[in-house]
Records
---
Amino acid sequence: MEKNCEGILSSIVTDDVIQGSKVLNSGGLVAFPTETVYGLGADAANPEAVSRIFKAKGRPADHPLIVHISQVKDIDLWAVDVPKEAWRLAERFWPGPFTLILKRHSSVHNLITGGQDTVGLRVPAHPMALDLLQQFGRGIAAPSANRFGRVSPTEAAHVVEDLGGEIDLILDGGPCDIGVESTIMDFTSSKPVVLRPGWITKEALEEVLDSSISLRQGGAVRCPGQDLAHYSPRARVIVATSVEDLRAKVDEHFSSGARVAVMSSDLLENLPQEVMRVPFPKKLPEMARELYRSFRLADRLRADVVIAVCPATSGWGLTIADRLQRAAQGGLPLH
Ligand code: TXA
Ligand code: MG
């Protein structure tokens, strides 16, 4: 059955959390807001429901899902042998944009863990997500609510665009405050390691643990956010090292006939008139919040390439740089 966007909007987009909880209880898929990005949720204890997530996203079955829980002490329901450092970080950063990878409890379904002996856990901070978790009363398995490898949704309308026909209900909690996915920290290797940078920075984690932490550079744990081609718009993303480099790259692609967009807050005078502008804030927290919206705008403008300057890679800058670099590996031609 074909549904147009407005039809989908009026029939499945709501702010009724109780309805969301009922849909989850009956094995349905519910997209919901978190402070990072929208998640595509299913009852983590219902394998049929969880398998629908993989189908809707087109996600390979061996890629594990984060289980969202409502309180720190629920860690014990999902994980075993939890190190005291992990408890400390959970107490400090939950509810919040932080995911722990821990040794799984034997009751956790293989579909969630992608067949690994670990499980990802997070208590989100968005009030609607917490309300849904409390109403539902159990864990909700949820990846970002986008097609596999594509840009994560930061508004309910993005979920409608990407997956509207595949989902039973979309809870609309407004635009996400943070705009990029949670920091993921793995406690199952010999040393704790950050698998995915995010709002909670390496520096903030080190301060709580009072020891240095490494960032993952490749390794054995399967983590699709770590695949090179990820978080991509259709336009090819090109990362410039400076404004001068951006100008050179614009000239290069424009002269070869491409539809070029620049993601920048600078005025950038004297660019060819045809070069399209995608607003992109200068300050880091805003940059994160707007990053995926800017990618989507470049696609709406039917840009072949979108060029952005990479920020310095410390603190929050590392997260933006990480997502830009990964998107740059994965762009597909538009036509
Ligand atoms: O901010 C977020 O984390 C959002 C919101 C919805 O919570 N979720 C999210 O989920 O980004 P997803 O599936 O799009 O990305 C989660 C990442 C994936 O790269 C996944 O492989 C990794 O977490 N992950 C989940 N469980 C894991 C595990 N047991 N071991 C290693 N990586 C895991
Ligand atoms: Mg994702």
---
Amino acid sequence: MNILAIETSCDETACAVVGDGVRELASVVASSKEFHEKTGGVVPEIAARKQVDFIVPVIDECLNQFGDKKDIDAIAVTVGPGLVGSLIVGIEAAKALSLILDKPLIPVNHLIGHIYANFLVHIDIKFPAIALIVSGGHTDLVFIKGHGELEFLGGTLDDAAGEAFDKTARILGLSNYLGGVLLSQKAATCETNSLAGSLPRPLLTENSFDFSFSGLKTATKNLIDKKAFSVEEIACEFQEAVVDVLVEKTVKAAKKFSVSNVLLGGGVAANGLLRENLMRALTTMGCKLVMPPIRLCGDNAVYIASAAFFNNVSQPLADIVPNPSLGITSTF
Ligand code: KG4
Ligand code: ZN
């Protein structure tokens, strides 16, 4: 079954075709990131207008890569969470395609999509499993009994992990917008972390699976104000603090639910230290860590198509509407 998926939840416009949820057949991603760099944050109005500019050329290019549109069996689209103006563009385009090609339309939750980036490269994923989704807007820990059977364990009480990376990158003067990757590159150049353990590891001792990262920003700012440490050292200690919390909570969840597989997903899943430390901690306890390749961690439509295949809930077109605040276990 070939599913053509459209993803427009924020500042990426993406279209992909995936066979049986696991074979990537075509994929195109355009981004309006450069426009938001100028303003130091995503401007929803600009993001939506860029979605309008990009959507037709992106779908067109994806169909050119794929071949004959008669071989498309269903359309899928992200319905949330995200920016309402951006979501509308993708949803309306998907509805039009569904009508023209006379194929069903499958709504997809963007957060669940991130988990399915793993299915494009791993054939032996076993349920039940734990999934950690770490993106710019979310930090969610879930127990997955099977496709479509998710139990929410905990999430962030304030900033998401990616948001904390981005805000700290800004305080450190590294980047105005989406500086997470630059922060991690800076941290990698720190030879000795003389600040080891000096930043808080929020909620680590709490008996819950919730996260809190906003206090780390203030603590990092206080370190910067002391003018005694290099940007490299502060970036390194900040990254260690975030990763320590993510790893320990995920390990605790894997132990509690006795799972043999843990699935990672979201933009922050590209972080080298998180991948390395989580792999080490889980391997030690005999648990397998399944990670998406770096190129599928950020937003794209490949994983939306895969999620649609394994969670096929096609709905009447009139019922498919944007849901900007959709949670990971919410129904559409
Ligand atoms: O999933 P994603 O592409 O978009 C959302 O759905 O939010 O995640 C983007 C987030 C941004 O906050 C970005 O800075 C962060 O992922 N990110 C990273 C790295 N690469 C991307 N954070 C830390 N280390 C990285 N290597
Ligand atoms: Zn995302």
---
Amino acid sequence: MPSPEADLEDLAARIRKSRHLLVFTGAGVSRESGLPTFREAQSGWWARYDPMKLASAEGFLADPALVWSWYRWRKALARAAEPNAAHHVIAWLEKRVPRFTLVTQNVDGLHARAGSRAAIELHGSLERVRCCDCGAVFPWETAASEEAVPRCPSCSGRLRPDVVWFGEALPEAALTAALAVAEACDLCLAVGTSALVYPAAWVPQMACAAGAALVEINPEPTALRSLAALSIARPAGEAFAKLKALLDDVSG
Ligand code: OAD
């Protein structure tokens, strides 16, 4: 009978041998920081609104003040949250494997706060805002005014959160970089994602198709389960805390 830690020992052995580790994260990596996953974020007062309206260009055009109040609520949640063990150990791994790339679908900024550098942010970030007219990008604090719909300091156009909305293209450079890493890595760790939203969900699938071993960490089965060489059905924070203990001998 394999030990209850056999799954994590298997993953630790794979990481020790990896020459290029790709970590692909979704909202589940921030659950133990207390942040709802994307679909849970419609809870409470927001349940009356369709996320397609709150996270879409059409919704913003129809009611920019409502969309801003929703994102200000999400930003306040993200700011009040703390990175959990998963964020911290992913940042720790970055410095301890020969080559490491983090690709995230999350906009909450917790990977950067845990020390991850150069994360590829496929869906943008709540750390930034962008002008709808001139396209200039500013830190989120630029929109901290009480204005219902903050204005661009450069051209006075309307500002929006610098995140990808439903129906919008992903930042081309980020997607191109993520798919290139998927082709090059030898181990892909998919953490806390339902892998249902495209084109982001191509990343772990392309890694697998290019010959990388795919490992998923998610308490629930996902669309990746049939492709995964190893599925670790544990919460990410718990799994990474145990994984670090197993890897502590990895120099770096
Ligand atoms: P989802 O809400 O679709 O999936 C979150 C996944 O995390 C689920 O499979 C959960 O089972 C899992 N999960 C929950 N708690 C967990 C934990 N403690 N540890 C590990 N996993 C856990 O979120 P995403 O897959 O990130 O796009 O969704 C992708 C995209 O859908 C989002 O980026 C957003 C949305 O449309 C945009 O905003 C463009």
